[in-house]
């Protein structure tokens, strides 16, 4: 068993064979131990003298199990014959020697790549490739923030490629609002660029590409299909930014990002552990383990937006997100005396957003005999929890007014004075930053997720219900302080880009080649997420949904080398069709029961 486990760890071994160089640990097994048997050790064989099956085409695949299968059959046969005639310990020693030699060689290659990248950071000449897990018109943080990051990096003079998920039109109809559907990636790219121009002004051009993906209705998330790194820009290879690295790598099938790019930095957006504890407590522990493992295996460094996220290896905390220029300009143009409205909140009507706390706080006010303070809620009047939240508010007798969905660009919220955000599951609230940029008070909990906002004068903090009610009454009767230019820059995407560039420079200095532990963890995930039957089984058992069946993508040469993202997604939909309307309703009902 020990020898078998050790064999699985030699995923990098064929890379040396593929390069045409045969260092001593790669000699035929009988030759490696010839000296210890009292026989002269032959010189290394020439590449051109080897049989064809001994020359292996690595093709950048880091799957450890596949690597073992590609090991020259002649060498494996001799190793096994030698083991039968001598001992299994000799074979184990051979395999260990190969593992350590490959590890040393790959460490040297990675170290050289990192040193080269550090030099390019000093000159600003590197190409940034950004992969994210969502795209407009789905107005979620991982669709908007990476787009703005790419735009502002381009404005700073950097070469940037943004890679977005491409969904089949049948799944677009499920995900995107108002029935928006695109037939081609070019149509969606045009939509994304027009949205950026309308909401944040003109930016220098940058490249937008797409990778194949599927929508998992159970998770409410978009999952990559196959080897996402294969869809990188042809000119990229310096810096890779993985927006939500754990999400992108839960079912990663293909090359290790750290082998493809000189530096790989993950930006962690979402508190998946908190959501798991709330809705599926039994899954929180395994999810924490998996998130840590994939980040260790596939990222050189990690940037967490706040310290509310789970501990992750090689991570630092920095807010590298900003506020769109339209909100900065709205705040600049609006006089503080024009803020005549009351209190409001913008967000989805989900228990995870802190509605239970908000109702409890306001219920305490009602219980004390005071007139209930009205808070207007701007969020879709749909979703899994809306009816429950609305019923709970009515039962408690609090004055929550549900006004339907909108965002801060809507004129309906411009005159409000106080933004209330009771959530404790946010990593870093974008709507809180937008409200500050517009010159409003923000009333937020004293929590690590809100540490970034404590530097602003208009931030009001609370811990207890009494503090919440006291701060709320103060904000409704006072006038917010005008923002300084320094505060505006700190909130803006220009300021966020400055912090991002500083973080990347620090990541480049601190990054080190993958440790042996990193490679073994990557081996385990690579072995589990392989392109064969066992990979399909593992994905099925772990609930991969529409991306479970990927054997066709790995074994059919046409699709393995295809550069047509539409073709790949259409084939995937043929293999695993999206849910029908009745199935969607069934899944939604099951989700409501689970969350209840």
TrEMBL record:
It holds the Pfam family Glyco_trans_1_4. It is found in: Membrane; Plastid, Chloroplast. Residues 1-20 form the signal peptide. Belongs to the glycosyltransferase group 1 family. Glycosyltransferase 4 subfamily. GO terms for cellular component: chloroplast; membrane. Coiled coil: none annotated. PANTHER family: DIGALACTOSYLDIACYLGLYCEROL SYNTHASE 2, CHLOROPLASTIC. One of its GO terms (molecular function) is digalactosyldiacylglycerol synthase activity. Keywords: Chloroplast, Membrane, Plastid, Signal, Transferase. Residues 33-54, 577-596 are annotated as: Disordered. The keyword Ribosomal protein does not apply. The lineage of its organism: Eukaryota, Haptista, Haptophyta, Prymnesiophyceae, Prymnesiales. It comes from Prymnesium parvum (Toxic golden alga). This is Digalactosyldiacylglycerol synthase.
